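Protocol step 4 of 5: obtain the predicted structure for the target chain.
Materials: sequence only (see below). No template structures provided, no constraints applied. The aim of this step is simply to have a reference model before the mutagenesis design in step 5. Sequence pasted as it appears in the construct record:
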Amino acid sequence: MIYSPLSVPSIIRFAAENHSDQEIVSRLNGGAMHRYSYADCYQRIAKLANALQALGVTKGDVVGTIAWNSYQHVELYYAISGIGAICHTINPRMGADRLAWVVAHAQDKLVFFDSQFSSMIDAAGTINSVNHWIALEADSKKNWLPPHSVKPLFYETLINEQRSNIDWPDLDENTSCGLCYTSGTTGKPKGVCYTHRSTVLHAMAICMTDVLGLSAMETILPVVPMFHVNAWGLPYGAPMSGAKLVLPGPMLDGESLANLIDQENVTSAYGVPTVWMGLLDYLDRTGRQLPSLKRLVSGGSAVSGDMLQRFREDYGVTVINAWGMTETSPVGTVNMPKQRSQNISQAESDALALKQGRGVFGLEMRLADTENRPLPRDGQATGELQVRGHWVTEGYLHQADLDALTEDGWFRTGDIASIDPQGYMHISDRAKDMIKSGGEWISSIELENAALSHPGVAQAAVIAVPHPKWQERPLLIACRSQTDAIAATDLRDYVATQLEKWMVPDAVEFIDEMPLGATGKIDKVQLRKIYQDYRLKE
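Step 4 output (structure tokens):
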């Protein structure tokens, strides 16, 4: 067979040749809409690649992006990696100090940014590795100075000066093409490098019917940010499959998403549960329907049975659970049904849908006990989930002292899980979030799902707090929904009807707003700080 290395620019070139008139639609920062075709996109990518080379970017250089989901961000994905450089997507939600740390740690040579992040970059201070800051907006009259007092360059000015064709360099498929840092909830963020090979294989995998099922008949909406694990690979999978790609920009509230879904006839959307709860609350308040929307894929944290049921029964939308990590590019499992699912009850189907799903070809999973001995796939045994595969990292950038793998080459995820005989994986909890009460383990996820099934609860989190007799007991922290004013005792009594008595939280605390981390998940590190002096009585 003819050997042809897997490369990122081959994806967008394929789209330009075979789906030339398919649209990429972006909602910009001010709310205006931008739309163009894959063919148009490819021409601008070539211009951008030429502009990068004119600025001195060469193979192996790191180029940062601090931007929302937009057509320009798509262009950056392909142009940077296409010339052999590394596209470093930076999460602006991590704050100025951490932003400065990751830019310096990655040694970014250029940084492209949306102007609304200007103040954050100012606060980050001077970063010596950065030669140029480049604003994505076309307004060259903006009076903003980067930290080293050099006026920014402007994206559109740069690419307008370049020709719209390029001879892509021949690259080894194991060349790094992307870089993403973990959210750093347990210390400094850790950098994960993706290769051309891993990225193309991951994109091919998510296009499969039993994974995300992307196709030229689909209109997809990645609500998951492009600065977070490459938006789950969707900017690569969409052009590979010829799907229409709709990019939401910074407006991710329920009404804005509903308007975009309706306007563009979106068929599937992808994001974290907190986003889908916001959309669901908006639909409930307004009575609005979204006839084009068929499925929501949810990842990042567990979905609740209540959300799954309400979307299905009230709006005809299927919620699909999925699991992955920065270290797995990220897709690892997707909860798609099998033929046998047609012969089970709705209650059994709902219980199955709450699992994180079946493994994707290209990624292997196993369970191990505390001695790293394999555990059976019987749906009962629980242990640490370990993975390996074509798009799983083997280590972290510039941090060789962090041993990510077992002695026999499996990545330790830190998740506690079970796998049933049908291959469905279910995460009990993150190892660090499990609650050890009197020698018994309590799953925070199970408690949170029980609380979220109450209509008066909008968000819920469970953390461990000290107990004089049992060492640790669960504390339930919740935000009330806008339509209910449930009392703490009532919520605790409600949870008690669904769980064994020893698992029921000893106390319930209500807060107005749940702290969220850089990836939109509930930040339990902050909750532990807030309640570090919380004490329960025996």
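Step 4 remarks: The CA atoms of residues 64 and 103 lie 7 Å apart. The longest strand covers residues 457-467.
Proceed to step 5.
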